[in-house]
Design a protein that fits this description.
single chain, about 250 residues, alpha/beta, 7 strands, about 40% helix, globular
Length: about 250
Amino acid sequence: MTLTDRAFWLNYWESKEGLIFQIPNKYPFLPLIRQLVAAHPIQSVLELGGFPGYYSVWMKKHLNTDATLLDYVVHPKILHELEKANGLPEHSVGVIETDLFQYSPQRGFDMVTSNGLIEHFDDTAVILEKHVESLNPGGLLLVTLPNFRGLNGWFQKTFDPENYAKHNIRSMDLELLRTTSERLGLKNIKVYYDGRFMLWFERESEKPLLGRLLRKVLWLPLKVFFKLVPVETKAFSPYIVLTATK
């Protein structure tokens, strides 16, 4: 069962500002994608649940891949503006607008990726299986999701319980992701925490004053600490990364 519906995503994207920009090479996970693709060359990529399509657009522009974006809700105007802002003509990125669970792959892809998708579903195994279905044999899987099992999760649960409830916290378990990937027959599995420290709120200006102040108080000292002690941990890392091959 999905923890979000179409109305949620329509409201979410309509509330967002600053969606259109030239995607920087240091955008989250792009250095990792460069590294993965250098070791595992690809010709095609499918981005699941990725609207507005930052990864699809960037990979089309900089890696010259056949990039396709699949999502339940895709606003063509926003995608076309993003393509234009990144020096691509309209329709450079393919679009499949559908419910992922109603989708039957018509072709395979050399890479399937999602960012912040799987944690919105109750059954982690089922949503990961939908990724694997679209992978070519030997294809590359890259899944990233937030880590709400540490300090950032406490902030979300305490000061933004509505957003916290939209996430399956059980999915944010390294061992669960590893064993599920093994059961799906994946190989070369790597699962790890990514990033040293980060705290964020969706629509921060609407959050309780105490939460906003506390985030600001903690931000600088923890940023300085992790600059001096560059470790990635369950307690403080903002993300989880899963990579594997089929």
